[in-house]
């Protein structure tokens, strides 16, 4: 069986477990995973139960897909994602997005933790992703193209939907938190960047740096899904401040702004 058939089997499994097919899905980045647990009338599917889904051990025990309601609307929330730095190929990393696409999801909100390259940002800011730069070193569409997913050479001139970015701005105003916008650069990781790399990334036009989101956004656009990306600036990037970078700091900041981030997501869901 091929990749498309595996994705289809997973999508059929999910469809068979839910009453209403969601048109919007959210991939929950660092510190946001438990938002999935707040959905109403929820159907929770551990990744290990979904056929062919990258095994839950790669994303931690919390890995699950939850379909449930927020403000009366049915959405899908993914708690736990697969990263390229764990050693997975990009087809595996984007499996979840492919399943959501075949299920019928039309809008995908990708959230992540990122380092702030733009010195105008403050730690804890939530940045609307206007565009990305792919420096992961590969692309999830490498290999034979399956036309059932999309075209060979998909357009990437508006990966992050202008309409959804406008909705994110409205949502930010609604929670009294005007949102900065910027360009996200995706790197392979898992080591953090050097100060010289950060100066380079600033020069090429990046405002924030992280290790996820880019492959998922490309796969989603390949399938015609409308994408919104929001980064939590959990730390200033390497060399901006005199201190070394630390994953605990990333998790602490993500935890600190979790309430605001979830508030923002709820306002986005209500408007999207
Ligand atoms: N660099 C890369 N990825 C990250 C960072 C960073 O500084 N912070 C959170 N994710």
Description:
The chain has helices at residues 3-17, 90-93, 95-103, 162-174, 195-203, 214-222, 247-256, 258-271; strands at residues 24-28, 40-46, 64-70, 73-79, 107-116, 126-135, 181-187, 208-210, 226-236. The longest helix has 15 residues, at 3-17. It is built from eight helices and nine strands. The protein has a single domain (3-271), classed as Nucleoside phosphorylase domain (Rossmann fold). β6 (126-135), α4 and β7 form a beta-alpha-beta unit. It is an alpha/beta fold. Residues 56-60 have low confidence and may be disordered. The chain binds hypoxanthine (HPA). Residues 113-115, 192-193, 209-211, 234-235, 237, 245, 250 line the site of hypoxanthine.
Helix content: 25-40%
Instruction: Please give the count of helices.
Output: 8
Task: Indicate the mean pLDDT.
Answer: 94
What order do the strands of the largest sheet run in, or round the barrel if closed?
5-8-7-6-9
Counted beta strands: 9
Ligands = hypoxanthine
* Highest CATH level, the class: Alpha Beta
């Amino acid at each position: 069986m091929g990749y498309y058939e595996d994705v289809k089997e997973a999508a059929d499994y999910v469809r068979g477990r839910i009453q209403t097919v969601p048109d919007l899905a959210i991939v929950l980045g660092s510190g946001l995973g438990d938002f999935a647990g707040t959905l109403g009338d929820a159907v929770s599917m551990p990744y290990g139960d979904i056929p062919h889904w990258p095994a839950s051990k790669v994303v931690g025990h919390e890995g699950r897909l939850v379909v449930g309601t927020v403000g009366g609307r049915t959405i899908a929330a993914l708690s736990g994602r697969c990263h390229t730095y764990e050693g997975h190929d990009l087809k595996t990393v984007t499996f979840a997005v492919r399943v959501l696409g075949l299920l019928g999801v039309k809008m995908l909100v990708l959230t992540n933790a990122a380092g702030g390259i733009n010195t105008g940002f403050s730690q804890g800011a939530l940045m609307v992703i206007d565009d990305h730069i792919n420096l992961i070193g590969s692309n999830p569409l490498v290999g034979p193209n399956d036309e059932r997913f999309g075209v060979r050479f998909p357009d990437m001139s508006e990966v992050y939907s202008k309409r959804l970015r406008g909705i994110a701005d409205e949502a930010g105003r609604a929670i009294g938190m005007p949102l900065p916008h910027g360009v996200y650069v995706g790197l392979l990781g898992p080591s953090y960047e050097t100060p010289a790399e950060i100066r380079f990334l600033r020069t090429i036009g990046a405002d924030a740096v992280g290790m996820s989101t880019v492959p998922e956004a490309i796969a989603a656009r390949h399938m015609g899904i409308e994408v919104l990306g929001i980064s939590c600036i959990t730390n200033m990037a390497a060399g901006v401040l005199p201190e070394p970078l630390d994953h605990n700091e990333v998790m602490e900041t993500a935890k600190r702004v979790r309430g605001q981030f979830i508030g923002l997501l709820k306002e986005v869901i209500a408007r999207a």
